[in-house]
Design a protein that fits this description.
single chain; mainly alpha; Rossmann fold; 4 domains; two-stranded parallel ribbon
Length: 475
C-alpha cells in the first residue's frame, strides 16, 4: 500500500504548534514518498471536544497549506465518536480469544491496590484480582475490559525511527483497561483499531506518546495485526527549557497568524524545529517535500522562541509575490484603519518600500497607515524628541521650498533638503527625522524622499503645516 501517515488531534482547542509540527512532519514524509496523509479526530473526550475546535484545526491546517487525503470510500474525516462498533468488535475478539477479561473492581479498589504496592516497594498497578474469575457479559456489577498481559513474555521492543531502539520489560506493565464500564474504548484500543483499519504504515507523533507504544504493540500482537513503524519526534520547550504547554494560547497557529506572520514563514519555522537538511534555512513547501526524511530529525528538544520566526518572516515579506503579500496584508490594514482601503498605485509603491523595514504584517500595516489618514497622530516620544521649537524655522523654509518645486520627485526633494540644511547648518538626520514625524506620525518609515514623493505635494505640505502648529502650541 506504500506509505500512509496520519495526524489525529483531539479537537479540544486551537491547533498548538507542537501538533502543527507533527502534522507537518507526517505530511512531508508521506508526500516525499508519494504516499497518503490522513486526518482523523480523536474526540472520545466528549466533554471537551467541540465542533468549533475541529473547525479551528482545519482552518489552521488550510492556512499552513497542509492538505490531507480522504480514506477510500469516505467523504469525510473519521471521528472516534462515530466508530464505537469497530472498537466493540475488537474488544469482543480479544475477549473471545482469552486475551482480555472483564473486571468489576471499582476505581477505589484499584487505587487501594496501587497504594499497597507502593507501600511494599512494588510498581503500583492493578493486582489482577479479576483475571481468573471468568466474569461474563451478564454480570450484575458494572465491568470494564482489561488486556491480559502474557506472563513471562519477551520484552516489548521496537526500533523507533527517531528515538532509536526502544522497549520495556513486560513485567512493568499491568493488565490495563481497554474498554470502560460504559463500553467506550480507551485511547490505546481506539488508536490501534483506527491505524490498522486505515492502513497507516508510519505513526509519527510527539515524544510524550513514547510510553504508550508498548501497550499498543501488545494490542497489535493480541489482535494478530502487523503494527506500523513508529517515529516519536522530540518535545518542544520554552527558552527556559520548560515543556511548551499545549494550553498556551500564544503558541497556537492562529496566534502566529493574528500577530502578522505569513503562513510560509510559520511553515518554514515549524519544519526547522528539530529537523534540518545541511545548512538550509529557507525552504518552500515543495522543497520540504523533496528533502524531508526522518533521519534528519534530531533527538533533543527544540526551543520555541520568536527570534528565528521573525527573521524568517522578514525574508518572506521581502520576496513574496505582490498579490499574495497584499492579500495577507489587507486584514491588518482593515484592523488598523477600521475600513477597507482602496489599494492605489501610490500605496502599492509604499508596500514595496516597506518590505525591507517590516518584521510582521501587523507592523507593515501600522507603518503604512499614515498613507490613508487625513491627519496623523504623533507618537508622543517621537514628537517630543523631533518636533522641537528650534526646528520650526527650518521646517518653515523647507515647506516654502517644497511649495516652489517645479517637479515632485526624489531628486528635487533632496535638493530642497540640501538647500535648507546648508542655510541652517543642520545635519540631514535632524531635519529628516522631524519631517518623518510630521509626515507619518512616527520616527520610522521608508526613506524620507521616497515617502514624500509617494504622499504627494498637497498632503505633504498640509502635514508640515500641522506639525508647525503642533510646535507652536507646545512652545
Amino acid at each position: 500500500m506504500g506509505v500512509v501517515t496520519r495526524y489525529a488531534p483531539s479537537p479540544t482547542g486551537a491547533l498548538h504548534i507542537g501538533g502543527a509540527r507533527t502534522a507537518l512532519f507526517s505530511w512531508a514524509f508521506a508526500r516525499h514518498h508519494g504516499g497518503r496523509f490522513l486526518l482523523r479526530f480523536e474526540d472520545t473526550d466528549r466533554e471537551r471536544s467541540t465542533s468549533e475546535s475541529e473547525a479551528a484545526v482545519l482552518e489552521a491546517l488550510d492556512w499552513l497549506g497542509i492538505d490531507y487525503d480522504l480514506l477510500p470510500g469516505s467523504d469525510g474525516i473519521p471521528r472516534q465518536s462515530e466508530r464505537s462498533e469497530k472498537y466493540h468488535g475488537a474488544s469482543a475478539r480479544l475477549l473471545d480469544r482469552g486475551h482480555a477479561y472483564r473486571c468489576t473492581c471499582t476505581l477505589e479498589q484499584v487505587e487501594a491496590m496501587r497504594e499497597r504496592a507502593r507501600a511494599e516497594g512494588r510498581n503500583p498497578g492493578y493486582d489482577r484480582s479479576c483475571r481468573n474469575k471468568g466474569i461474563g457479559p451478564e454480570s450484575p456489577e458494572p465491568f470494564c475490559v482489561r488486556l491480559r498481559i502474557p506472563d513471562g513474555a519477551d520484552p516489548v521492543r521496537w526500533d523507533d525511527l527517531i528515538a532509536g531502539p526502544s522497549g520495556i520489560d513486560i513485567s512493568q506493565l499491568d493488565d490495563f483497561v481497554i474498554a470502560r464500564a460504559d463500553g467506550s474504548a480507551i485511547y490505546h484500543l481506539a488508536v490501534v483499531v483506527d491505524d490498522h483499519e486505515m492502513g497507516v504504515s508510519h505513526v509519527i507523533r510527539g515524544r510524550e506518546h513514547l510510553s504508550s507504544t508498548p501497550r499498543q504493540l501488545l494490542l497489535y500482537r493480541a489482535l494478530e495485526w502487523e503494527p506500523p513503524l513508529f517515529a516519536h519526534v522530540p518535545l518542544l520547550v520554552e527558552p527556559s527549557g520548560k515543556k511548551l504547554s499545549k494550553r498556551m494560547a500564544a503558541a497556537s497557529v492562529q496566534s502566529y497568524r493574528d500577530r502578522g506572520f505569513t503562513p510560509e514563514a510559520v511553515l518554514n519555522y515549524l519544519i526547522r524545529l528539530g529537523w534540518g537538511h545541511g545548512d538550509r534555512e529557507i525552504l518552500s513547501a515543495t522543497e520540504m517535500i523533496e528533502l524531508f526524511d526522518l533521519e534528519g530529525v534530531g533527538r533533543s528538544p527544540s526551543q520555541v522562541h520568536d527570534d528565528k520566526l521573525t527573521w524568517l518572516n522578514q525574508q518572506y515579506l521581502r520576496t513574496l509575490p505582490a498579490d499574495r503579500l497584499l492579500a495577507y496584508l489587507r486584514p491588518f490594514l482593515e484592523a488598523q484603519l477600521g475600513a477597507t482601503p482602496e489599494l492605489d498605485e501610490g500605496f502599492l509603491a509604499l508596500v514595496e518600500l516597506l518590505r525591507e523595514r517590516s518584521k510582521t504584517l501587523e507592523e507593515m500595516a501600522r507603518l503604512a497607515s499614515f498613507y490613508w489618514v487625513d491627519q496623523v497622530e504623533y507618537e508622543a516620544k517621537a514628537a517630543r524628541k523631533f518636533l522641537k521649537p528650534e526646528l520650526a524655522a527650518p521646517l518653515t523654509d523647507l515647506s516654502d521650498a517644497f511649495n516652489e518645486l517645479a517637479r515632485w520627485d526624489t531628486d528635487a526633494l533632496r535638493q530642497a533638503f540640501d538647500d535648507v540644511l546648508d542655510e541652517h547648518g543642520l545635519k540631514l538626520g535632524t531635519l529628516a527625522q522631524a519631517v518623518r514625524v510630521a509626515i507619518t506620525g512616527s520616527s520610522a518609515s521608508p526613506g524620507i524622499f521616497e515617502t514624500l514623493e509617494l504622499l504627494g505635494r498637497e498632503r505633504s505640505l498640509a502635514r508640515l503645516a500641522a506639525a508647525l502648529e503642533h510646535i507652536q502650541a507646545a512652545d
